[in-house]
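Loading example: each entry is read as four labelled lines plus one structure line.
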Amino acid sequence: MQYQGQTRILVAVDCIIFGFDGEEIKLLLIQRGFEPRVRDWSLMGGFLKPDENLDEAASRILYELTGLKEVYLEQLMSFGQLDRDPVERTVCVTYFSLINIHKYEKQITDSFHADWFSINNIPRLIFDHVKMVNEAKIKLRYKAALHPILFELLPEKFTIPQLQNLYQQVYDTEFDNRNFSRKLLSTGLLMKLGEKDKSSSKKGAFYYQLDKEKYKQNFQAFLNLIPNPDKFLL
Amino acid sequence: MQYQGQTRILVAVDCIIFGFDGEEIKLLLIQRGFEPRVRDWSLMGGFLKPDENLDEAASRILYELTGLKEVYLEQLMSFGQLDRDPVERTVCVTYFSLINIHKYEKQITDSFHADWFSINNIPRLIFDHVKMVNEAKIKLRYKAALHPILFELLPEKFTIPQLQNLYQQVYDTEFDNRNFSRKLLSTGLLMKLGEKDKSSSKKGAFYYQLDKEKYKQNFQAFLNLIPNPDKFLL
DNA sequence: TCAAAAGTGTTCGAATTACACCCATGG
DNA sequence: CCATGGGTGTAATTCGAACACTTTTGA
């Protein structure tokens, strides 16, 4: 049984994948392997299959192209401009993903002609992918101002200066390190480890780890790490 | 030219329409006119046509069923569970809308078997529409905690007690009226009128009006009207 | 005259900001 | 021994929460 007289349309799923290399926020892009616009850079995407729902499609696409499972993945929004794909009318549901860049294996990058690009230096993208990236950046700022999601971008063990740098990149500003670490530690979400990371200073910075339990429980809590958040939202 | 070997799918657009009658938050629902589940209550929706984009489809649907144009309409999210529509696989893009209930003409309600339901007393809905409504409620709380969108639910002229009541309904709590009006007026978004509304008290409450210019400019501003917002978000 | 809602100010405590110095270490 | 980044404490201020009384007027 079917609905009569209605038009069926291609549905695509595209993923905006963020990473952080310790210096900059990065975006994972692939070089398109088919026409039109072969070799142009593009978000990772694919068509929705008849036997999968939207979240499954996003996970599949992410897995096919990065080999990663169980990563942070959240629906962003849908795009349906008539001419957004020159080949054929396609409605696109986008997801944004935060991944630990170090878990991402290099060989996959190679085999799919994928590459990380600094968020501030994105190449020309196909279709309306730039608009998608911009929406994702806005949502990332929103969400990260209220929820501790940026931990998803870091390795298991990280230092406070690393984390501060990450926030500074996301909000494109500088924070006072004393206030930052005080607020951060006051959340009780972090556990200090014995080790130090000596890669970025002679003194070394202590590693911390997320308290997974509290992280899950407090996910809905405000993290008021960002002073004057209204400066940065939308 | 078309993409080969891909499945095309029905795309629907459903609208979650909020109103406020001065007492309660309401939801506009229609009685479905066709099988399956004829006469069951449903969100207003329709299928995406080949010549319209998503926003246009949502506006059209809203217009067809309420006669209203230029109302607050924002994409919520998309739903794609395999079995969400028993007739045929359908991906649904939802929008939520805030309308001034008094602008909504009664005759249209009648002709479409539509009706307003208190948000706290929603009838059984078809498919996954309850899930959609819940997502919309969450998003409404989020958005209204950061942006002055609830004015969209009120008439041109409104009183501060009315507005406070609206916020109290949205967040299902009570606010201190002294703090509320102080914060509200400090935004500079409101202009006091000479008239009073005497319908709800003997003393009467002054009408206010939005300063449209400032409203547009300050749309991105926090309205910290809600104490402890983290209690209410998500 | 009284009941019922509108309107207004102050005080207190907490939270946020601004700010400067010592520490540890590798070179 | 010194340059570099890591780490900590305090004072001043702002901001938000709590709280109670007066006003108006229709019934």
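Helices of chain B lie at 54-66, 106-111, 129-146, 160-171, 177-186, 212-217.
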